[in-house]
Design brief:
By secondary structure, the chain is an alpha/beta fold. 29% of the residues lie in helices and 25% in strands. The longest helix has 25 residues. The chain is elongated, with a radius of gyration of 26 Å.
Length: 383
């Protein structure tokens, strides 16, 4: 081969090799310049929310069952019935359900009867019924409504065991001890639900402030107690490492409960294992007296107010707006009084709480305000 031909062939050969490389790159997982390829980006890439008013598919207002002294977990003897109360969880019922269920089970175990009437099929009732069943009790749930027509379906669905759980000025050392036991029990139980059809999952959780805030509280949840070392702590992010145009960004990992599938999963399991469920509106104590079981576990949430004449129990309303799900978005974020979490069934926007309000009509202007706040943040975010 002449020297000139050698160079021409060599050049053609390398062109063929590099076009082969390009082809394999095009079909392989990493593409230089691809949006998700972030080796040289210098900050953590997170996908943006699609925010527009026409993506709103649902708006709801739920009533958190709040008691200033904290959830009522105690035994009461009424005539020939033993009542075990387990209600009034405020903004932490999803998180504490297993833990207070465990405390209620201990009270049930103090008596010999094995047949239990359990009132209510919210997240607290379903968890408590499951635990009792696991301990060999024969449980019948009596309830006015089942999911999705209950307060538990109107919650955000994050790990927030101290969110509006009581009024801190009214809490006692005994309550805080119970709360800690319940929180630790729940946390352990929830880890056992990971990997089961995504009913529970972990995700990144951000709080974004344009300027340095006066207080480090402000994640929108109103957490009033904290157990150090139980769940990952907040970490202040270096400005170089996040995509937000903001001076102060905190990040941690947090749990998400995929509410519709979670409730379905546990209710189905309860029924599969021989549990019974009857639709029954309990209006008075006489209705309870008429039940065949001697032991009654009360998990009626706000419904306990009128039946047990509990003056302390009151609603704290909370609005949520649900946007069309975005599978690629898998984080939670709070900023300027608005937050969103991403669940399998949608992106949930929220951030308010009105003490004593029974009004369950959503306000469109509130949803639009949250959309505007989050839209501003997304617009300025590095993509
Ligand atoms: C906007 C919002 C966001 C929230 N976010 C979170 C969160 O992120 N994390 C968290 O941990 N918690 C959160 N919560 C709080 C949580 O949703 C509640 O604490 C929890 O749902 C209470 O559960 P429950 O089972 O006690 O009550 P419910 O879900 O109200 O269930 C009560 C059950 O009792 C039945 N019942 C009521 N009255 C009667 C009657 N007279 N006769 C027969 N049956 C009756 C009902 O039909 C229902 O089945 C949030 C709440 C709201 C409103």
């Amino acid at each position: 081969m002449k020297r000139r031909d050698f160079f021409i062939n060599a050049a053609l050969g390398s062109a063929a090799i590099s076009s082969q490389l390009l082809t394999s790159c095009a079909t392989g997982p990493i593409l230089y310049g691809d949006k998700n390829y972030n080796i040289n980006r210098g900050y953590q890439f997170i996908p943006k929310l699609k925010l527009s008013k026409d993506r709103i598919i649902k708006e709801t207002v739920g009533l958190r069952p709040f008691r200033a002294s904290g959830p009522r977990i105690e035994k009461q003897i009424l005539g020939n019935k033993t009542i075990v109360h387990n209600y009034g969880h405020g903004g932490s019922g999803w998180s504490l359900s297993w833990g207070t269920g465990h405390l209620a089970r201990k009270l049930v175990m103090e008596q010999p009867d094995k047949k239990i009437a359990l009132l209510g099929a919210g997240t607290v009732g379903i968890a408590t019924a499951t635990l009792l069943q696991e301990s060999g009790y024969e449980v019948t749930i009596y309830t006015k409504d089942v999911p999705p027509n209950i307060t538990s379906n109107l919650a955000t669905g994050t790990w927030s065991p101290a969110s509006r759980v009581c009024d801190k000025s009214k809490s006692t050392p005994e309550f805080e001890k119970k709360w800690e036991e319940a929180t630790r029990f729940s946390f352990r139980r929830l880890q056992m639900l990971l990997g089961m059809e995504d009913i529970v999952s972990w995700c990144d959780d951000y709080v974004v402030h344009k300027s340095i805030p006066n207080t480090t509280d402000g994640n929108g949840g109103g957490e009033i107690f904290h157990l150090e070392g139980l769940a990952p702590e907040w970490v202040l992010m270096d400005k170089k490492n996040h995509p937000f145009k903001a001076d102060y960004v905190r990040k941690r990992s947090n749990m998400i409960f995929n509410i519709p599938s979670y409730l379905n999963f546990h209710l189905n399991n309860f029924l599969l294992r021989g549990g019974k469920l009857k639709i029954h509106d309990i209006k008075t104590l006489e209705d309870i007296d008429a039940l065949p079981e001697k032991v009654v576990v009360n998990c009626m949430g706000l419904g306990a107010k009128s039946v047990f004449n509990d003056e302390e129990l009151m609603p704290i309303s909370g609005q949520l707006a649900c946007l069309i799900p975005q599978n690629e978005v898998n984080y939670k974020l709070a900023t300027k009084g608005a937050y969103f979490i991403t669940r399998k069934d949608g992106i949930y926007l929220g951030g308010n709480g009105i003490d004593g309000s029974w009004d369950t009509n959503p306000k469109r202007e509130l949803t639009e305000k949250w959309i505007d706040v989050l839209m501003d943040l997304m617009k300025e975010m590095k993509g």
